[in-house]
Amino acid sequence: MQSQNRLFDDLVKIMNGAAGTVAGMAREGEGSMRERMREWIGGQDFVARDEFEAVKAMAAAARDENDALRKRIEALEARASKAPKPPKGGAAL
Questions:
Q1: Tens digits of per-residue pLDDT, 46-81?
Q2: Helix, strand, coil: what percent of the chain each, to 5?
Q3: How far is CA 14 from CA 11, 23, 25, in A?
Q4: What are the CB-based long-range contacts (under 8 Å, 24+) for 81-88?
Q5: pTM, two decimal places
């Protein structure tokens, strides 16, 4: 009976050692993968969130200005089309 307990004790020690080794490998692999992802992301042309928000605000302002200018041009064209046209041939001196 004593030999079976010792066998189980040895088996448990081996399994605990293997589990610890696997857990250590998992932690090392995760750390390595995180570092590689940081290097990869750092090499990409990503922008920071605050830079993105600034450009987004600039684009919205440009769009608003464009709409205002379009309305102004339409109003000027409408006024120009209603204005009397000068006679052809020019004025006599």
A1: 888 999 999 999 999 999 999 999 999 999 999 999
A2: 80, 0, 20
A3: 5, 14, 16
A4: none
A5: 0.44
Query: In the numeric block, which tokens belong to residue 7?
Result: 């066998």
For residue range 7-51, list pLDDT tens digits in order.
888 888 899 889 889 999 999 999 999 999 888 887 777 888 999
Residue 92: strand, helix, or coil = coil
Contacts of 55 (CB under 8 A, 6+ apart): 47
Where helices occur in 44-83 by DSSP H, the ranges are: 49-82
Number of H helices and E strands in the chain, helices first, is 2, 0
> What distances in angstroms separate CA 78 from CA 72, 74, 81, 84, 90, one per listed residue?
10, 6, 5, 12, 24
Residue at 32: amino acid letter? S
